[in-house]
């Protein structure tokens, strides 16, 4: 990508800095500006944008410093000095006058801007020329440097004295990355793509631009359904557009730093102790000073390459021989057993061995595979287990790891096939605890394939028979472990299938178990269970405590996806969608590499939060991104949910044809889904049809609610009853109130208030519900409550309340493309004479004045006012004055 395009990109998010720089250059009493910032931040691109802004009135001369240890006198001025007559070269003063005259002649009366780039590297004679040109009024300065300390002393004093204004540039933050790419390409960017690009580039503009174009060319990022989405991991290699940038940058470093970068490209994220052992204290300090590595704050004690692409490129350039040599050097400095290595170190060691073409020891391979799965790297897990032979005692565990890797790749059939390859006689010979682990893995895979339920029931029955056969030693550690694993398999089967009422007691009892893994996994399953059973706030509290506890562990529980999904649902269903969005964005930002394999699911939940909040337009953009990623990798078979949510949102924004198209697409997607996802799919399908005024949609929602009530699923029942309440009877509203009173959270309170308002014909209750919905930023729900309040107020002749509801609807009309329901009742129509009397009264005229104005008697005016009060539902002249609908 050329400099012109880099300059164009910089203007999208750096226009404020460009304008400030121009203002400093033009300001009276100053000599110009200093633009400082780290490598690759975009200083030169900003300078070119400034030059373009000033091009009509300014002549620009560019000077470049040098990083050579020995500076050549006047080297930055070589091009100008070559044009000077020989007589001007006899003395420093002659050179200064000659260059001054030459620049003035080139400028031809225009202003002059000297752009000094790539500091440090100005010799003292060049600095003398610059100072003469600036202080003599010939030119102004635009200086580009990483730090103020890189400047020659004379320029430092100009900055300290305020004669050179300083603008500091920083790398782009995550939001700026999204804004830049969206504006530069005219295409919205998915949350996952923004996160992946920000992490891969560290927000460095030079890296970001090259990385984006390269990954688009490779197909790792592609435009789909109108937006940029991530298909594969963003990895740079030796053939990358960034490779020249990295080579150029490393060429400026000494041999020790280059060797340190090579070793760090293999070490990845490692402990401070290991980094010092491998690199040495001095080299590590040099790497940190040069901006290659980051040493974590006290307490974390970890070291990693700041820019991931540097590690990718350097590592890809290493030959197998060189990699083996470096691996040998690294290994010779370490005196650690496999057990003492943490997850990242284990993965790095395995990756080194495989990349070097060496045989991976089975124990290391399995340990690295398990760590890779927990770090969302299924490809490494498959590589690490590929060499474990059938005859080895760890082979069955390797098969389980491979199955889990395929599950992360959303290939459930391959996951099941891996497990089916384990012969029955091998299964029969497994120790009881290993057998329990295999059962849990098989259940987790079979949940996602057709006819999986029947096979799971058979598998669990067989597991119970085997446990019964082992019952002679029920107190053995192995038996207890197997018992817990089979329990977990059964619990997961129940939660996945929606049997929440049947499993909740067992899960709550397990919270007191003394085995931490079992307890945490049961807690993970308990979060979605509580969320559906009407205990949303309990689910949120449990999820929050789980997050705190899990963050202190080296690895997350096996079933942690259930708690994350249940947490999102609990927040959304209880009305806390804003908190849900924040939580999910944090998950995208801080979870190690989730984007490629779980990004679609995270963005789906982000879209669902927006959809439930009534923000159809915003939700469509996010859900399209989620659908695009799920089309590429249908994790959890959630694509159908994405389509129906899109249908609902298009119905919300009054786009019926698109809504129907997405409903058709949803029907074309097959495969077992998580119960909660299936329930939401059904809910959004019926809600989309209801917004499109299909006559039986409300009836279908009501029927769905009754089915949920039979299973004790109060939350989903309550939501369906609320959705079906447009044509509800008093009995229906009574049921909505009864069910919602058994739920937790603010959304349940909104349901109760709405139901009570409808049953008792109380507009105050409806307005209270609307006000609560407003605090939750639930626009569509607020409008539903406000419409009911308006109808009830008009029905009761309470004009003040009607005006309050009407004002609320007017505000919402600007936010919503279509109201979910229109007001049914309307005020009595006024005659033209009544309107005339009302408007005159609103001007403050008395009865006599009105009578004189329209030529009637005072008694006639009083009669008109009586009719007005009756029709408008007002009782005083003040209320008439406040009526805005006349």
Explain how this protein is built.
The longest helix has 24 residues, at 3-26. The protein is mainly alpha-helical. The protein is built from 45 helices and eleven strands. The protein starts with a helix and ends with a helix. The strands form three sheets. Strands 2-3-4-1-5 form a five-stranded parallel sheet, with helices on both faces. A three-stranded mixed sheet has the order 6-8-7, with helices on both faces. The chain has a three-stranded antiparallel sheet with strand order 9-11-10. Strand 10 (293-295) and strand 11 (302-305) form a beta hairpin.
Compute the average pLDDT. 86
Largest sheet: 5 strands, parallel
Count of DSSP-assigned helices: 45
In terms of DSSP E residues, the strand content is 5-15%
Give the fraction of residues assigned to helices. Answer: 55-70%
User: Got a strand count?
Assistant: 11
| Class inferred from helices and paired strands | mainly alpha
Head-to-tail CA distance between termini = 63 Å
Low-confidence stretches: none
- Main-sheet strand order equals 2-3-4-1-5
Overall 3D geometry? Answer: flat
Radius of gyration: 35 Å
């Amino acid at each position: 990508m050329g400099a012109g395009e880099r300059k164009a990109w910089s203007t999208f998010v750096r226009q404020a800095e460009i304008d400030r720089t121009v203002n400093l250059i033009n300001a009276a009493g100053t000599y110009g500006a200093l633009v400082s910032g780290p490598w690759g931040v975009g200083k030169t691109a900003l300078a070119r944008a400034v030059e373009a802004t000033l091009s009509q009135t300014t002549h620009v001369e560019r000077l470049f410093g040098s990083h050579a240890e020995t500076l050549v006198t006047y080297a930055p001025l070589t091009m100008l000095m070559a044009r000077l007559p020989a007589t001007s070269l006899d003395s420093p003063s002659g050179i200064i006058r000659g260059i001054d005259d030459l620049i003035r002649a080139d400028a031809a009366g225009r202003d002059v801007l000297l752009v000094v780039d790539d500091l440090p590297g100005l010799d003292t004679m060049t600095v003398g020329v610059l100072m003469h040109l600036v202080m003599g009024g010939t030119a102004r300065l635009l200086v580009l440097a990483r730090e103020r300390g890189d400047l020659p002393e004379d320029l430092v004093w100009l900055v300290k004295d305020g004669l050179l204004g300083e603008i500091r540039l920083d790398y782009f933050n995550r939001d700026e990355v999204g804004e830049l790419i969206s504006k530069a390409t005219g295409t919205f960017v998915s949350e996952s793509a923004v996160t992946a690009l920000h992490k891969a580039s560290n927000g460095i503009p030079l890296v970001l631009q090259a990385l984006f174009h390269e990954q688009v060319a490779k197909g790792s990022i592609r435009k789909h359904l109108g937006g940029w989405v991530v298909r594969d991991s963003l990895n740079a290699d030796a053939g990358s557009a960034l490779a020249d940038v990295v080579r150029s940058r490393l060429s400026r470093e000494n041999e020790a730093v280059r060797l340190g970068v090579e070793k760090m490209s293999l070490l990845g994220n490692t402990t401070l102790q290991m980094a010092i052992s491998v690199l040495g204290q001095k080299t590590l300090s040099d790497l940190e000073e040069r901006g290659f590595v980051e040493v974590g704050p006290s307490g974390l004690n970890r070291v990693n390459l700041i820019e991931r692409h540097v590690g990718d490129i350097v590592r890809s350039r290493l030959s197998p021989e060189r990699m083996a040599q470096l691996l040998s050097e690294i290994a010779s400095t370490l005196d650690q057993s496999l057990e003492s290595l943490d997850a990242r170190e284990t993965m790095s060691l395995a990756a080194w061995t495989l990349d070097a073409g060496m045989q991976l020891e089975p124990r290391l391979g399995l340990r690295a595979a398990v760590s890779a799965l927990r770090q969302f790297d299924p490809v490494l897990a498959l590589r690490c287990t590929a060499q474990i032979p059938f005859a080895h005692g760890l082979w069955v565990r390797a098969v389980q790891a491979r199955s889990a890797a395929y599950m992360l790749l959303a290939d459930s059939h391959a996951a099941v096939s891996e497990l089916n390859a384990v012969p029955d006689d091998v299964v029969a010979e497994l120790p009881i605890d290993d057998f329990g682990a295999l059962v849990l893995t098989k259940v987790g895979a079979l949940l996602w394939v057709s006819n999986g339920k029947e096979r799971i029931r058979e598998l669990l029955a067989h597991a119970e028979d085997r446990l019964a056969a082992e019952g002679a030693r029920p107190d053995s550690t192995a038996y207890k472990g197997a018992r817990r694993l089979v329990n977990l398999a059964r619990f997961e089967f129940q939660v996945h299938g929606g049997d929440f009422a049947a499993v909740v007691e067992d899960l709550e009892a397990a919270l007191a178990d003394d085995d931490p893994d079992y307890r945490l996994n049961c807690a993970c399953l308990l979060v979605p269970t509580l969320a559906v059973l009407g205990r949303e706030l309990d689910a949120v509290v449990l999820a929050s405590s789980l997050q705190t506890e899990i963050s202190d562990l080296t690895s997350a529980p096996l079933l942690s996806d259930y708690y994350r999904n249940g947490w999102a649902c609990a927040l959304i269903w209880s009305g806390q969608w804003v908190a849900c969005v924040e939580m999910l964005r944090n998950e995208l930002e801080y979870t190690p590499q989730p984007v490629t394999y779980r990004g679609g699911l995270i963005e789906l939940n982000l879209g669902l939060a927006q959809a439930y909040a009534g923000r159809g337009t915003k939700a469509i953009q996010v859900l399209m991104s989620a659908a695009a990623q799920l089309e590429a990798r249908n994790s959890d078979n959630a694509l159908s949910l994405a389509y129906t949510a899109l249908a609902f949102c298009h119905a919300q924004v009054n786009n019926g044809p698109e809504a129907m198209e997405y409903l058709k697409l949803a029907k074309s997607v097959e495969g077992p889904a998580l119960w909660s996802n299936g329930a939401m799919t059904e809910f959004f399908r019926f809600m989309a049809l209801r917004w499109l005024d299909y006559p039986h949609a409300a009836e279908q929602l009501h029927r769905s609610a009754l089915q949920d009530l039979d299973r004790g699923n109060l939350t989903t029942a309550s939501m369906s009853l609320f959705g079906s309440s447009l044509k509800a009877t008093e009995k229906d509203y009574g049921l909505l109130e009864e069910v919602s009173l058994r739920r937790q959270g603010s959304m349940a309170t909104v349901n109760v208030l709405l139901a009570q308002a409808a049953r008792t014909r109380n507009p105050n209750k409806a307005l209270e519900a609307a006000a609560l919905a407003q605090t939750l930023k639930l626009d569509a729900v607020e409008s539903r409550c406000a419409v009911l309040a308006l109808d009830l107020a008009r029905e009761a002749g309470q004009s003040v309340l009607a005006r309050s509801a009407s004002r609320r609807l007017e505000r919402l009309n600007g936010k919503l493309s279509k109201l979910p329901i229109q007001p049914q009742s309307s005020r009595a129509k006024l005659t033209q004479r009544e309107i005339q009397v009302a408007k005159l009264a609103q001007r403050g005229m008395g009865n006599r004045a009105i009578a004189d104005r329209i030529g009637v008697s005072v008694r006639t005016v009083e009669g008109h006012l009586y009719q007005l009060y009756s029709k408008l539902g007002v009782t005083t002249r003040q209320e008439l004055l406040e009526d805005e609908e006349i």
